[in-house]
Design brief:
By secondary structure, this protein is an all-alpha fold. The protein has a domain at about 90-165. Helix content is about 55%, strand content about 0%. The protein has helices spanning about 5-40, 90-140, 150-155, 160-165. The longest helix has about 50 residues, at about 90-140. The N and C termini lie far apart (about 110 Å). The relative contact order is 0.04. It is found in: Chromosome; Nucleus, Nucleolus. Required for proper chromosome segregation during mitosis and error-free mitotic progression. Keywords: Chromosome, Citrullination, Coiled coil, Nucleus, Phosphoprotein, Ribosome biogenesis, rRNA processing. This is Coiled-coil domain-containing protein 86.
Length: about 180
């Protein structure tokens, strides 16, 4: 078993070795470029209009293991398909427990919804019954005057005619 202190020490030593290798590679490249420049110095080329052109600077090649910013904590990215993925899978017992718990929760929510529906239905029925009773009581308490002479209706004004309503005389008390 590797302790965390050992892993940090190992990673530091690996980083140091990577830096040293990168420095050595850079020195070798510099020597190669200096040798080739001193051996063959090409004459400046001229454009068609006669002006001399500047030689294009070569892009410094960066070794594969070292990031451009020289930050040692930046690692080389791997392809996603190469990365090993660890998948957490619960055991059968835990799955069954979760299923049972979900069933229990669903049953509770179903019963709560049914209770709410019943309460709302009872409230609606009570409202309807109260409205019906109120209307019956209003009709019972009305003072009714029967009009036998249709000529009276012709003489009445519009406002008075609007207030007149037809009723069934079977269950109404007459004055």
């Amino acid at each position: 078993m590797v302790l965390p202190e050992e892993t940090t020490a190992i990673s530091k030593s690996v980083d140091k070795i990577n830096k040293d290798v990168a420095n050595i590679l850079n020195e070798i490249k510099r020597k190669n470029t200096n040798d080739s420049e001193s051996a063959e110095k090409p004459a400046k080329q001229q454009k068609l209009d006669g002006k001399p052109t500047k030689p294009k600077p070569k892009a410094a090649a960066i070794p594969r293991g070292k990031p451009k910013s020289n930050r040692p904590w930046k690692e080389v990215k791997q392809k996603f398909s190469k990365i090993k993925k660890s998948i957490f899978r619960p055991t059968k017992d835990k799955k069954e427990d979760l299923r049972n718990e979900l069933k229990h929760i669903k049953e509770l929510s179903r019963t709560i919804k049914e209770n709410r529906k019943q309460e709302n239905e009872m409230k609606r029925q009570r409202r309807e019954e109260n409205a019906r009773k109120k209307l019956e009581n209003e009709r019972k308490s009305e003072i009714v005057q029967v009009i036998n002479n249709p000529a009276k209706l012709k003489r009445m004004k519009k406002k008075a005619l609007r207030k007149i309503e037809k009723r069934d005389l079977a269950n109404i008390k007459k004055v």
